[in-house]
């Protein structure tokens, strides 16, 4: 199983909208936002973070 953890921090309200490309997510009020992602793979009993960290 794989999981993508993707928190988003916004300076404005919490509402978001998806653009016509059906991929891009922006804040509904046009405020600044930051996005961070980690992908975790769970095999057997051992989770492994596979996103590189630099």
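Q: What amino acid sequence fits the structure above?
A:
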């Amino acid at each position: 199983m794989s999981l993508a953890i993707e928190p988003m921090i916004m300076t404005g309200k919490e509402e978001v909208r998806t653009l016509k490309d059906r991929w891009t997510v922006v804040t509904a009020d046009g405020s600044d936002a930051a996005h961070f992602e980690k992908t975790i793979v769970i095999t057997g009993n051992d989770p492994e973070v596979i996103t590189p960290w630099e």
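Q: And what stands out in the fold?
A: The chain has a mean pLDDT of 92.
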